[in-house]
């Protein structure tokens, strides 16, 4: 009976506005790597699109608190985030966001700031932005790979924890102890060991696979839609930010870190109430047919072996109204066994 009540509760949450689509940007510049950049002109077009289409750009802290308390968010809520802390955010993005009066969050790695890298923000700029309502949060001390090429033993755990704590201490020291316990994974890479560590440290984790965040999300691996590079097209971005999170039981999902070159996604849906039966799935952008062992389950596997590194399986299903999609993404980090020795 309790399980039935849980399903009914989760179902009502998903169909209400109990979710937020979080966007992640890196560079706002025409002179930075294309894969992680959006031009100032196109970034402004994104902000205008949000306004014209009636989206509510919400403070991420307000969104997190609402989701944790199972409170309803404004319809079509989105949150804007940036990773790394590049200087062009201050030069190009910040003025536009002030013009539109949109809140945003900036995840920064602290060592490059302390080392005065010329392409990074400095502490004075971060303090100025924070004083104007920008949330500054943790993106590690050194922006190194945290789960690759390391055996996940006690030494790894201690070193990783020290890395996160070092960055948090630097942020709080420079920003008047006004930094949330949030952590954005460098390169969007995490593992069960890392999410467990973050949970033990009472941190919320942010990743880089796509999909909406809702009360049933993994709080140590919240998804974010990439909105720069090849993902900056306003038409496709609009489809994504109109989507609702697919209610997959994330507690049953496999680890992102795997040695399998054709990892299998086994997904269990908490409800299928508003979803069409047709499921469209993609492996690294290429359509791949899923199997449906049961109406509330689906399975997906790459048809070909995947190279070492990051990959994503994405699946969508139209709402019964046809007005939007339900969206789910499963990230993988394929590694060699020798890398973990």
Descriptive notes:
This protein has 341 residues and is α/β, with parallel strands linked by helices. The chain is 30% helix and 24% strand. The strands form 5 sheets. Strands 1, 4, 5, 6, 7, 10 and 11 form a 7-stranded mixed beta sheet that branches. Helix 4 links the parallel strand 5 and strand 6. Helix 2 packs parallel to helix 4.
The number of distinct β-strands equals 20
Mean pLDDT, all residues: 93
Assembly category: single chain
Q: Give the helices and strands as they follow along the chain.
A: HEEEHEHEHEHHEHEHEEEHEEEEEEEEE
- Low-pLDDT residue spans: 1-16
**Radius of gyration, Cα only, in angstroms?**
20 Å
CA-CA gap between termini = 47 Å
Q: What's the helix count?
A: 9
| Class of secondary structure makeup | alpha/beta
Largest sheet: 7 strands, mixed
Assign an overall shape. globular
Helix content: 25-40%
**Proportion of residues in β-strands:** 15-25%
Provide a short characterization of the protein structure.
By secondary structure, this protein is α/β, with parallel strands linked by helices. The protein contains nine helices and 20 strands.
Topology:
Blueprint: H1 2-15, E1 19-25, E2 27-28, E3 37-38, H2 40-52, E4 56-57, H3 60-68, E5 77-84, H4 87-100, E6 105-108, H5 110-114, H6 123-131, E7 135-138, H7 154-174, E8 182-184, H8 192-200, E9 204-206, E10 213-214, E11 225-226, H9 234-241, E12 244-245, E13 257-258, E14 264-268, E15 280-283, E16 286-287, E17 291-294, E18 297-301, E19 309-318, E20 325-334
Parallel strand pairs: 1-5, 1-11, 2-3, 4-5, 5-6, 6-7, 8-9, 12-20, 13-20
Antiparallel strand pairs: 1-10, 14-18, 15-16, 15-19, 17-18, 19-20
């Amino acid at each position: 009976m309790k399980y039935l009540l849980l399903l009914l509760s989760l179902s009502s949450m998903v169909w209400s506005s109990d979710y937020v689509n979080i966007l992640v940007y890196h560079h706002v510049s025409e002179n930075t790597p294309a894969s992680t950049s959006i031009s100032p002109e196109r970034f402004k077009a994104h902000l205008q699109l949000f306004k014209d289409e009636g989206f509510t750009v919400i403070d991420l802290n307000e969104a997190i608190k609402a989701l944790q308390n199972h409170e309803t968010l404004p319809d079509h809520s989105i949150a804007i985030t940036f990773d790394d802390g590049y200087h062009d955010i201050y030069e190009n993005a910040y003025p536009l966001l002030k013009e539109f009066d949109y809140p945003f969050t900036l995840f920064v790695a602290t060592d490059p700031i302390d080392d005065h890298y010329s392409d990074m923000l400095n502490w004075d700029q971060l303090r100025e932005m924070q004083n104007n309502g920008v949330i500054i949060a943790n993106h590690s001390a050194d922006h190194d790979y945290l789960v690759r090429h390391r055996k996940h033993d006690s030494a790894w755990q201690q070193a990783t924890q020290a890395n996160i704590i070092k960055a948090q201490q630097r942020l709080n020291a420079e920003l008047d102890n006004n930094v949330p316990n949030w952590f954005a994974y460098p390169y969007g890479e995490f593992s069960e060991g890392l999410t467990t560590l973050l949970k033990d440290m009472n941190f919320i984790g942010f990743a880089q696979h796509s999909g909406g965040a809702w009360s049933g999300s993994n709080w140590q691996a919240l998804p974010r839609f990439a909105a720069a590079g090849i993902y900056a097209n306003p038409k496709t971005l609009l489809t994504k930010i109109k989507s609702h999170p697919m209610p997959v039981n994330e507690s049953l999902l496999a680890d992102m870190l795997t040695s399998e070159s054709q990892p299998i996604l086994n997904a269990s849906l908490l409800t299928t109430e508003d979803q069409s039966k047709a499921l469209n799935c993609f492996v690294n952008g290429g359509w791949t047919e899923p199997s449906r062992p049961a109406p509330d389950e689906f399975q997906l596997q790459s048809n070909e072996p995947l190279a070492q590194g990051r990959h994503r399986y994405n699946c969508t299903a139209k709402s019964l109204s046809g007005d939007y999609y339900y969206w789910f993404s499963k990230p993988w980090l394929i590694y060699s066994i020798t890398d973990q020795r």
